Amino acid sequence: MNVRTTVLFGLVTVTAGAGAVGCSLGSDTDLPSGAGAVSLAVSPVAAAASTGAGTARPRPDAPVSVQARQGTIENVTVTTEGEPVEGALNAERTQWRSRWTLEPGTRYTITATAVGDDGRTRTVSSRFVTAEAKKTLGVVYEAPKPKETVGVGMPIVMRFQREVTNRVGVERALEVRSSKPVEGAWHWFDNKTLVFRTKTYWPRHTDVTFKARLAGVAGAGDTYGGKNTTVRFRIGEEQISTASENKHKMIVRRNGKIVRKMPISMGRGGVRKYTTTNGIHLTMDKGNPVTMTSGWEGIGPGSPGYYSLSVHHAVRISNSGEYVHSAPWSVGAQGSSNVSHGCVNASPSDARWFYHFAQRGDPYIVTGSDRELEPDNGWGYWQMKWGEWVKGSALKHSLKVGPNGSVPVAHRSTEAMAGSPERRP
Predict the structure, then answer these.
(1) Residue 84: which pLDDT band, with cuts at 50, 70 and 90?
(2) Beta bridge partners of 6
(3) Active-site residues: which are they?
(4) pTM across the whole model
């Protein structure tokens, strides 16, 4: 078998003569190619095949590319430890490019097969190792948890441990798939907080897969994502609670049907900190018991007005200290007046029932209060109008999400999206 191998501007080009199959890049044998024989250019190149100053390992965000001349590509596989790397061919089947970035400090193998204009098949392979990351872009996935069954309002919440300057690159590395079609969008609250929310509530009984392909993504300067993460979760029943500040009543619905009514007492008001926030909250977590202190007011031990109290069957609905919890001391006021520091007080039996009923991500709507919940207070994301939410995406568009992934949604104008929040399917 006669093979000619040349290195040209970061591409290794293998031109194989008639009958050459299974050629390996780096061969030093030589024979001119025949007329119509296909040639394959593969990038990146193994550092050992480079010359002079070009011995550095390829950056993990450099794409893998295979290009055919005088023929078409039949198949390309890029693997590391047996895991395939996704990519796609162009319409002419003359070029293949990887879709996502690569993992830092990792060995990859490329195998490509093409058919030449002369009808003969050629196969080449190459190996390379990506550069190590000097700094790693760590991330905490706040919600949802893997395999968790959640409410119809559940967002995907990411907290980066370093500031992200390449928001576009990070956002492009994220993929959401759902068994039922939805529209959703990412929103940056700052350089460390990124949240995905749907335009309307998730349809119940939807299976969702979230993939963060951050390995090799340059988040900022020489800081790269270290690994890829996949989180699968399921949307459970549609459970929506409405609590009226002026009627002192809470109504719980499941799939549109009322399942429980209960008297409650909310924040006594008078000052902002004692006023329950108004709007669409989400149930965030639970505790039994939860110790509540006056520390959130700036009142410490030994100071006038200090308190430390353990409450039972507490369901958190914000980051400003608001829970739905058992309050046996205010049963006499529940259903008639507001006496709390801002929480939603319920009887021990009602609070116990709601504690076991609630799932994370259930909408909890407070009405009648004059203090609006801020969109970044806990998971108050449904407080933001859809047009404003989409504007917070680095890519400035929403996504049509389905079983096969997500595609951008073309919007008529920002003004057309800027109406009231669309909160229900």
Answers:
(1) confident
(2) 13
(3) 325, 343
(4) 0.83
